[in-house]
Amino acid sequence: MESQINSVVIVGGGTAGWITAARLAHDHCANQPGGLTVTLIESPDVGPIGVGEGSWPTLRVTLREIGVSESDFIRECEVSFKQGSKFVAWRTGADNDFYYHPFMPPEGALDIDVNRAWLKHQPEAPFAYAVSAQPQLCEEGLAPKQVQTPEYAAFSNYGYHLNADKFGAFLRRYCIEKLGVNYIEDHITGVNAAEDGHIRSLSCRASGEITGDLFVDCTGGRGLLINQHFKAPFVDCTDVLFNNKALAVQVPYDTPDQNIASATISTAQSSGWIWDIGLQTRRGMGYVYSSAHIERDQVWEALQAHIASTSRVNIETLTPRELSFRPGYRSTPWVKNCVAVGMSSGFVEPLEASAIAMVEICAKTISNELPATKAAMAIVAQRYNQRFVERWDSIVEFLKLHYWLSERDDSDYWRDNRRPDTLPQHLTEMLELWKHQIPSTADFHQILELFGPPSYQYILYGMGYKPADRVTRSRRDNDEIAAQVFQSVSDSLKKGLRGLPTNRSLLNAITQRSGEGI
Ligand SMILES: Cc1cc2nc3c(=O)[nH]c(=O)nc-3n(C[C@H](O)[C@H](O)[C@H](O)COP(=O)(O)OP(=O)(O)OC[C@H]3O[C@@H](n4cnc5c(N)ncnc54)[C@H](O)[C@@H]3O)c2cc1C
Question: What CATH number is given to the structural domain containing 338?
Answer without folding.
Answer: 3.50.50.60
